[in-house]
Design brief:
It is a single chain. The chain has 476 residues and is of the alpha/beta class. It has two domains: 323 residues, Alkaline Phosphatase, subunit A (3-Layer(aba) Sandwich), CATH 3.40.720; 72 residues, no CATH class. Helix content is 31%, strand content 18%. It contains twelve helices and 15 strands. Strands 4-3-5-1-6-9-2-10 form an eight-stranded mixed β-sheet, with helices on both faces. Strands 11, 12, 13, 14 and 15 form a five-stranded antiparallel β-sheet that branches. A two-stranded antiparallel ribbon has the order 7-8. Strand 13 and strand 14 form a beta hairpin. Helix 7 packs parallel to helix 9. The protein binds zinc ion.
């Protein structure tokens, strides 16, 4: 992969962009402002450096090939709330009646949309693709690495992107290269799969079935069914939730978030416990509608005559904490509820059932290319999971200019470091016996502590190279 010179110090550039954004605000249209900002900030993050990562055998299927691919990346979908991952409720029963291959141990590269979906689109870790320090729809660096859309379009596929998430706009250029785009405008967002599917089907009918384009296709959709505001379909309300909720399921995103935050801030311990139950119940009820929408979309693909030749991928960009850490949100930490996301594959020739494969979002693009019979991308962090799973995964979250979280994990243990100008912290958890991560364990007492420290030390070296004022934790 061609790479340009490394970017200058990120903190200085970030301040420059914010200053520029303030000057531009209110004086230019969004489109003009963005065009200027993207041109000003074009540069390339440092290239990946190899990290020690001994790997196990992959999931197999090295010889299976699919030139029809549908990726459903549901926003804010926790793996542990899906029936396929052992959840106690049948949240996606119809979908789960299909013979999905369930990949255990798939890990998000970060815990909110922009950095995590950018890793999905590029196969690069967060600190390598560089889209990590944007909040509140502010100006961002453009991705300069090849993206999923551009790679598959260049390979001769018809490519379509259908997103309900407002971050998948030209603002972030995550969707570069897709030929057909149906995107939510800024500000806004929130389209669910039932809204996006007709666009997908109309386009597929015109290009893949009726031959107006290449019959090979890649569709990527990012619906918002599980994202706030949580608004279950009417028919699903009351499946688990009680009638007298502590928030309004029909409120707007901002109003519902304020209601929930206020109820938590002012609640007694008993009221907080009830609020947690209410949010979890209503979140789960949104998954029933999502399940029906997936089932309808797959049935329509069958009607079009392409389901039997299509690789369907069901995954998520990140999860959501439901007050495990006293918050109902994402993007603030790298807790397991946020980075353990589903990866389910459905296609002829794939065997139904779980497969143990510790893997990263950076692996998805290489994996899809392998299934498509295309050559691997040079210089990416991910690898096709057909022939190699990982011994550990890593995630990065730059919360703001004052702190970055680094996380390395095996399937049973996690180790987190904080990097900041003012202080450091390190936390290890044995999530096999402590899934809520309530009882920190010294890194030296973790079975794989040495390997996880090695992973974090390599990450920390790269983070502090770009942010010299940061120091990162030493293991406790
Ligand atoms: Zn998201």
């Amino acid at each position: 992969m061609h790479r340009q010179e490394p970017c200058p110090a990120r903190s200085a550039r970030a301040a420059q962009r914010r200053s520029l954004a303030k000057r531009l605000a209110g004086t230019l249209t969004a489109g003009i402002a963005l065009t200027g900002l993207l041109a000003l900030t074009a540069c390339t993050p440092s290239p990946p450096s190899p990290l020690p990562d001994p790997r196990s055998t992959g999931i197999g299927y090295e010889d299976l090939r699919f030139r029809h691919i549908l990726v459903i990346e549901v926003d804010t979908l926790r793996a542990d709330h899906l029936s396929a991952y052992g959840y106690g409720r049948e949240t996606l029963p119809k979908t789960m009646q299909r013979p999905w291959l369930v990949v255990e141990g798939y890990t998000a590269a970060s815990s909110w949309t922009v950095p995590s979906t950018s890793s999905v689109m590029t196969g690069l870790d967060v600190h390598h693709h560089g889209l990590w320090d944007v909040q509140d729809q502010g100006p961002v660096d453009p991705l300069t690495a090849p993206t999923m859309g551009s790679v598959f379009t260049a390979a001769g596929f018809s490519t379509g992107l259908y997103s309900g998430n407002a971050f998948l706009t030209p603002l972030t250029n995550m969707g570069d290269g897709f030929q057909e785009k149906v995107l939510e405008p800024l500000p806004g967002g929130g389209a669910e799969l039932a809204t996006l599917s007709p666009h997908i089907l109309n386009w597929l009918d015109s290009v893949a079935v009726n031959g107006a384009g290449s019959s090979d296709f890649l569709v990527f959709t990012q619906p918002m069914d599980a994202h706030q505001p949580i608004q279950p379909d009417l028919q699903d309300r009351g499946t688990w939730s009680r009638g007298d909720l502590l928030f309004d399921p029909d409120a707007t995103r901002q109003d519902q978030a304020a209601q929930i935050a206020d109820a938590w801030a002012t609640g007694t311990p008993e009221q907080r416990s009830q609020l947690t139950t209410d949010v979890r119940d209503v979140y789960d009820e949104t998954l029933l509608g999502l399940d029906r929408s997936i089932d309808v979309l797959l049935a329509e693909l069958q009607t079009l005559g392409v389901l039997d030749t299509t690789l369907v991928v069901l995954t998520a960009d990140h999860g959501e904490t439901i007050f495990e850490d006293d918050s109902y949100t994402h993007g603030n930490t790298l807790r397991r509820e946020l980075v353990h996301v589903p990866l389910l594959l459905l296609a002829p020739g794939l065997t139904e059932g779980p497969v143990d494969c510790l893997s990263s979002q950076t692996d998805l693009l290489p994996t899809l290319l392998r299934f498509a019979g295309e050559p691997p991308l040079e210089g990416v962090d991910g690898r096709a999971i057909q022939d190699s799973c990982r011994a550990s995964t890593r995630s990065v979250l730059l919360a703001n200019d004052n702190i970055a979280w680094l996380d390395a994990a095996t399937s049973t243990e996690t180790l987190s470091w904080a990097c900041s100008p003012t202080g450091t912290a390190a936390y290890g958890f044995d999530v096999a016996t402590d899934p809520a991560a309530l009882n920190p364990v010294a890194a030296a007492d973790l079975k794989d502590g040495e390997m996880l420290i090695e992973q974090l030390a390599a990450l920390a070296a790269e983070i502090t190279a770009g942010r010299p004022t940061f120091t990162c934790a030493s293991p406790i």
